[in-house]
Structures are given as C-alpha cells and as structure tokens.
Amino acid sequence: MTTPAEPARLLPPLSPNGWLRWEVVSRLLPPPDRSLRVLEVGCGQGGFGARLAQRYDYVGVEPDETSSSVAVQRLAEAGGGGDVRRGDLSVLRPDETFDLVCAFEVIEHIEDDHDAMRSWAERVVPGGSVLLSTPAWQKRFGAADEMVGHFRRYDPPVLRDLLTGAGLVDVELVHFGAPLGYLLEAGRNAVGRRRLASAVFASGPSASKAARSDASGRTLQPSTSWSATAARLGTVPFRAVQRAFPHTGPGLVARARKP
Length: 259
Description:
The longest helix is centred in the C-terminal third of the chain and has 18 residues, at about 180-195. It is built from eleven helices and seven strands. It has a single domain (about 15-255), classed as Rossmann fold (3-Layer(aba) Sandwich). Helix content is about 40%, strand content about 20%. By secondary structure, the protein is α/β, with parallel strands linked by helices.
C-alpha cells in the first residue's frame, strides 16, 4: 500500500525511531476515509496524531499537560482537523466507540497491561481493529526503558496472548528497526545510563516511574529544524531496508481485529 504524500512543512517532526515506526504503521492503516473514527491512546505531542488526522475522524487522548498542549497546536498547524483531549479514556463519553484504536509506545508504560488492552478493545466497534507499537524482546530491557518509565518489553508470543486475551483475533505482528534501530537503541541506552546515574535526575521531578512515563513522549525528540530534517532524510534508506526484516528488530507493531 502506498501512502499519500505528506507535506513536511505542515506535519510535526519525528525522531529517527519514529520514522522507522511510522513506515510500518502507515502500511497497516486502513485507506484514508474521513468517516472512519480513530482513537489514539497516549498521543504524546501529536507526531502520529497530526498524520492520522489528515486521513480520519481523529481523537487523541494524552494525560501529560505539556504534551497534550503541543499536540493540540500541531494538529491545528497541520490543518487536518481532529480533537485532542487531555486525560485518559475517562475523558471519552461512555458510549464513544471507534473503528480503530491506536496506542503507539504506550502499553509498556502500563503496569496492568491486561486491563488496559481490554479497555481499549471495548472502545472498538465490531469488525474494527486495534493497532499498537511497543519495544520488542524483554531480554533487551535496558537503561533507556528505565529512563522513560517502562514496565516491560514484549516478546511476540506474549504480545499475541495479550491481544487474544482481550477478545481480539487475526493478530498480525511486524518487527521494525533492523538494522538502524539497534544503533539508535544503543544510543538511547547510553543516554539513559548517564541520566539514571545523575543525582539531579534521581532526586528531581523525573525521579518517579510515573513522572518518567508522563514525560516519555517528550524525551529525545527533535528540538531543532535541522535535527528534524536529518531524522527525516537520514532514515529514508533504512525505512526501505527494514521491510526485509519483518521478523526481527527492536520494535514491534501489532494489529488485531475485534470480531
């Protein structure tokens, strides 16, 4: 499936890993259709949300005040419409359901992942889907995971069981990131080790796992126009190369359907 051209001047920047992830996610999305209702849980600063809002009737929820404010601004600048609400699923109407529920780099931040997955599946209409991404392979859990408040990473069978346990079927799993993602992960782990060893980090406002999790959507994101451009252009060949490695890589994307 080809994706529509994206005007880089309007859409938010993505980190290098974000570009690798989006290449896979965009291939698993339904065709653009403004009548399709899409919910993104934990939309962060709206990097993916602004892109989804170009295609669908989009709602994003984000508990972090700073990130949600940025997401609102970015969706407005991108001009695709959409609605960002600060909070979790409780800010939705009790009867509000969606054709697609997305959660990118979210489930690993939630202690009770089984309850979270069930609550997401409950928001999907019959025949709709859940689409998510998460770090792969528990054996690779490292300083970068600690830095942003992860509880775990996911081996493919564990993630498959989590989805089917929530009543979802037709599970598809695609790895992303090989080979560049391994280098990016090594760099994040190096940053994580330095930050975790810092007395300021250990005793400051980012000390708790919850605080680190809330701020994760803002961590190591492009902060200048040149770094954003470098991330976009520098990952172009690697986005193509990773398609040859759908069964290995440090990241994992999953899609499953609600019967």
